[in-house]
Amino acid sequence: MLDLPKTTAILSASLTEGLHIGAQLHALIDGQPVADLALGNARLAPAPTPMTPDTLLLWLSAGKPITAVAIAMLVEQNKLRFDDEVATIIPEFAANGKDKITVRHLLTHTAGIRGMDLAYPFATWEETLAKIYAMKIERDWTPGLKAGYHAHTSWYVLGEIINRLTGQPHNEWIRDHILQPLGMHDTWLAMSPQQYHQYADRIGYLHDTTTSPPKPIPNYDTELAASRSRPAASIRGPAHDMTRFYEMLRNGGTLNNTRILSQDMVHALTFRQRVGMFDHTFRQTIDWGLGIILNSSHYGSAIPYQFGPHASASTFGHGGSQSSSAFCDPERNLVVALVFNGCPGEPAHDKRLRATLKALYEDLGLA
User: Fold this and answer.
1) Contact 320, 59 (CB under 8 A)
2) Domain identity same for 244 and 352
3) With helix as H, strand as E and coil as C, how does the chain read?
4) Which of 136, 171, 206 is the last residue of a domain?
5) 143-194 pLDDT, tens per residue?
6) Do 266 and 158 share a structural domain?
7) Structural domain range at position 25
8) Do residues 285 and 296 make contact, with C-beta atoms less than 8 angstroms apart?
9) Mean pLDDT throughout 24-53?
10) Domain closes at, from 171, 196, 211
11) Whole-angstrom Cα distance, residue 333 to residue 45?
12) pLDDT grade, residue 74 (50/70/90)?
């Protein structure tokens, strides 16, 4: 591993400042590990538990591209097309004028069904979908012509598409066809209570660090939450697992002689499918692939959940709310997975993320 003095200093300073109680960072260049950091604690109660490279942490929305890849695999298997109307697969979804929404609209956050209290993790999968089926498209929204980040709703629908087309629960199908083949053995969309307890202290908690002392965010890292898949946000695992996923994408869909996608499909996922559209959730202009955020720094310096000031224009990935970022910079042959287990508010996280990624590129000689 390389010495990363600037990066370690930023992570340590943020830790001292109380922005998080711990962090993991794993990075590859040309497929070779160059960073494997674990600082601070995985949890504080009932006693401090040190963070390790093998701690399982919640990735929140940084896990969305895994579900997107699952959908892309079904497209390559000719079970689905991106421009299929969702209602042809899930007839119930057509209720209240949603019959023209396509899979592509879901993946590009242009469907117009953003906001709803889905009562996670207490509502069942079926109860959650029933709420989404009953939704109306937002006022003054034509699917495909208006954009706004959909935090959860559309991703439940994508999960249900996988359920219906494969005949297998989406979390199990994703584990069997993506996570296990890539060697991401400690990464899960959902795990049984027995598996949750077997991991024991290896499961880290995501904390609200706007409070003093920091407190675990309610209903995020409990046995119940870990057992209920939320395709937008329930992936948990160590950072070194997430870099395997992005290394597969960097290699054109293959890792260690295991092919997940074709090179053409990787290009489709990371191509600018949504260009120059104002995002009505983030209140910024952001370009999108299919379920993947693309480097949009050319629109200004305030774009959230980007990849640092030194990332190349072709960088793609995804961030998790106030906590994580995983991405590939193909021009630098670089893959990075970074997760903090503290949510300090959007401004503080944005500053922390930019500073850490700036320092990482500089330490790696890529600035």
Assistant:
1) yes
2) yes
3) CCCCHHHHHHHHHHHHHCCCCEEEEEEEECCEEEEEEEEEEEECCCCCEECCCCCEEECHHHHHHHHHHHHHHHHHCCCCCCCCEHHHCCHHHHHHHCCCCEHHHHHCCCCCCCCCCCCCCCCCHHHHHHHHHCCCCCCCCCECCEECCCCCHHHHHHHHHHHHHHCCCHHHHHHHHHHCCCCCCCCECCCCHHHHHHHHHHECCCEECCCCCCEECCCCCCHHHHHCCCCCCCCEECHHHHHHHHHHHHCCCEECCEECCCHHHHHHHHCCCECCCEECCCCEECCECCCCEECCHHHCCCCCCCCCCCCCCCCEEEEECCCEEEEEEHHHCEEEEEEECEECCHHHHHHHHHHHHHHHHHHCCCC
4) 171
5) 999 999 999 999 999 999 999 999 999 999 999 999 999 999 999 999 999 9
6) no
7) 5-63+185-363
8) yes
9) 97
10) 171
11) 39
12) very high
Own/partner contacts of 132-140, CB < 8 Å, gap of 24 or more, are 132/93, 132/156, 132/157, 133/90, 133/92, 133/93, 133/95, 134/95, 134/96, 135/96, 135/98, 136/96, 136/97, 136/98, 137/96, 137/97, 137/98, 137/101, 137/111, 137/112, 137/113, 138/112, 138/113, 138/114
Q: Each residue of 129-150: pLDDT tens digit?
A: 999 999 999 999 999 999 999 9
Phi, psi torsion values for 37, nearest 5 degrees: -105, 145
180: in domain: no
Structure tokens at 203: 């499961």
Calculate Rg over the CA atoms of the chain. 19
Q: What pLDDT was estimated at residue 88?
A: 98
CB-side neighbour CA atoms (13 Å) of 96 = 13
* Pair 194, 311 in one domain: yes
Residues 198, 331, single domain; the answer is: yes
For residues 145 and 159, membership in a common domain is answered with yes
Residue with tokens 């993991």: 24
Strands 342-343 and 207-208 turn out to be parallel
Q: Domain tally for the chain?
A: 2
Query: How far apart, in whole angstroms, are the C-alpha atoms of residue 39 and residue 340?
Result: 10
- How far apart (Å, rounded) are the C-alpha atoms in residues 327 and 19? 22
Same domain flag for 229 and 339: yes
Answer whether 171's CB lies under 8 Å from 156's CB.
Answer: no
pTM: 0.97
